[in-house]
Amino acid sequence: MERINLNSAMDSCLPLLFSLLIGVVASNAALLPAQVYWHTVLPNTHMPTAISDLLSSDTVMDSKTGTYVYVGKGGVDVNAGTGKPGSTTVGVGKGGVHVVAGQGTPGGTTVGVGHGGVHIVAGKGTPGGTTVGVGHGRVDVGAGNGKPGSTTVHVGPGGVSVNVKPKYGKPHPRVTVGPFSYNYAATEEQLHDNRQINFFFLEQDLHPGSKMNMQFEKRNDAAKFLPRSEAESIPFSSKKLPEIVSRFSVQPGSDKEEAMKETLRECEDPVLKGEKKMCATSLESMVDFSVANLGTKNVEAVSTTVHSKDETPRQEYTIVASGMKNLAQDELVACHQQTYAYAVFYCHLAKSTKGYTVKMAGKDGTVVDAVAVCHADTSAWNPKHIAFKLLNVKPGTVPVCHLLPQDHVVFSRNN
What we know:
Layout: H1 6-29, H2 33-41, H3 49-52, E1 58-62, E2 67-72, E3 75-80, E4 88-93, E5 96-101, E6 109-114, E7 117-122, E8 130-135, E9 138-143, E10 151-156, E11 159-164, H4 188-191, H5 194-197, E12 200-202, E13 211-214, H6 228-232, H7 241-247, H8 255-268, E14 276-280, H9 283-294, E15 299-302, E16 305-306, E17 315-326, E18 330-337, E19 345-362, E20 367-375, H10 386-391, E21 400-403, E22 408-413
Antiparallel strand pairs: 1-2, 2-3, 3-4, 4-5, 5-6, 6-7, 7-8, 8-9, 9-10, 10-11, 12-21, 13-17, 14-19, 15-22, 16-20, 17-19, 18-19, 18-22, 19-20, 20-21
Organism: Carex littledalei
Protein name: BURP domain-containing protein 3
Domain BURP: 200-414
């Protein structure tokens, strides 16, 4: 009988065992913690793209040094925070290379090289430095002079335009309250913003054959979700804004800081009568809020989906025959993505509300599976809200409807 060398057999089997172990680990690691939580709490609920697109493929952050590394579909981002406001960041992605050399103080130099050309910001250590952008058929110059009120000059195909930014204390020109915050009055900018005004309509206009002129835009700068443990360790308060801005190396006085400030203000505002709300700083907290307020784990989650790889133009869309489906009526949880350093959603329980999925076809053939929400009771809304201005109706008189952009989510009880 042939004798078997056990040591030799084990040596030959070890590589196979290690391969099997690696395969098991890899298959488990394919799901991120937030995905595992979703599938555990909501096992029968499909995750909409508005959420799955915001899950980081690989995120590592050292809280002591402030260094943040993200590896995802769009490339690699490194933020060497060193715990100070003026950190160095490097981003390598589809758009090219972006470098921010903060030099230890806010307002450092930034250089971006991408498809659009070259963009340089010479901050000189203070907010409001000079910016120069050279791109396809255009030149942009921003002369901040280190002061809050900066001047920008744009030379392009359409001619020359000059924009003088206001001083601190006046409304920021690029930051407006979202149209889905119902306790705010409409601004002049909102009333002339075609991206917002056509999203509102009356319920009587929601039927097959109805035509709407609009553009479905998708945010390309949307921040990713942080792990719940990390998000909960970071202050989320207007009082802590300087600390938050420093932590994420956001330049003081920048558009992004102003937008973050507005997000915090909306999150801290009192709720409307009969409303429940929260700002979800993680996917897990969004799931918890939705389940708690709908009273069930058997929920449906939907978001607007545009079936096109390219940006779609502003055009006429028609609701197709048999293209409407009712979601559970009366109570819905709507979550609206905010502008922030990481993914934050303004979620609120909307009562006396109807939800629909609506299939629409554009003139160019683009198909959109849109989400529409109709509010039967608007009596608690601000009388000067943009919806009343556009539709020429008064609060509490008729149901007001709107479509949702692609980066918003609606949760409802599953029919």
